[in-house]
Design brief:
Cytochrome Bc1 Complex, Chain D, domain 2, 10 helices, about 70% helix
């Protein structure tokens, strides 16, 4: 369910931004006739898109724990809540500067949502500054546990039983060690890929710890 609603939210957000972009282009080019025609023709579809975007966004925010994952969520919401009424006023008063500013604010909010970072630093959102390196000879399970609790527990839960963002119960996983490593690297559905953010030894250690959870 979570994955399906995530895809729905992303699609609705993209349609919302595309519609706003078109209206902004019409306004900036002085094509009031096309702007009014677009607003009349797509009034109902826009209401449906906006409603679905809002409802799925609220569900995802609370079921994923985004509201407790740092300042990025609240910065995104501030940009969104400032942009929406600004956009309504801009198109009502035909204010080109205000319309452009609202579009930029919404694009900024979308960028924050995609990277989970107000400066679009996806690595900082995925991997903690305290994530330890793994050296040759280190106990992989112990090293993996440290990485897991810093970077994975927010979704998978401290005990690996699943928590936020539709994360599965890792203690019941039937995946092989190779499959776990591949999933960590590439991600799937709501889970991002950590390739490029964690090195090979860190991923190997993380997979070793996840494998150990099944024996507990």
């Amino acid at each position: 369910m979570y994955t399906g609603l995530t895809h729905t939210h992303v699609l609705m957000s993209a349609l919302f931004l595309f519609a706003l972009l078109l209206k902004t282009v019409f306004l900036l080019s002085g094509n009031d006739e096309m702007l009014e025609r677009f607003k009349r023709k797509f009034k109902i579809p826009e209401i449906i898109v906006d409603s679905l975007m809002l409802l799925t966004g609220i569900y995802l925010a609370f079921s994923s724990g985004w509201t407790t994952h740092g300042s990025w969520f609240w910065i995104k919401m501030a940009a969104f809540l400032a942009a929406v009424p600004m956009s309504v006023i801009a198109f009502k008063k035909r204010n080109k500067a205000m319309a452009l500013l609202s579009l930029l604010l919404l694009l900024y909010a979308y960028g924050i949502s995609e990277t989970k970072s107000p400066v679009f630093n996806k690595k900082a959102a995925l991997v903690s500054d305290e994530t330890p390196a793994v050296a040759e000879g280190d106990n992989l399970v112990e090293a993996g546990a440290a990485i897991f609790h810093l970077d994975c527990a927010r979704c998978h839960g401290n005990d690996g039983r699943g928590g936020k963002s539709g994360a599965p119960n890792l203690r019941e996983s039937k995946m092989t060690a190779e499959e776990v490593i591949a999933r960590i690297r590439k991600g799937k559905n709501a889970m991002p890929g950590y390739e490029g953010y964690l090195d090979d030894k860190q991923i190997e250690a993380l997979a070793a710890y996840i494998g150990s959870l099944r024996a507990q």
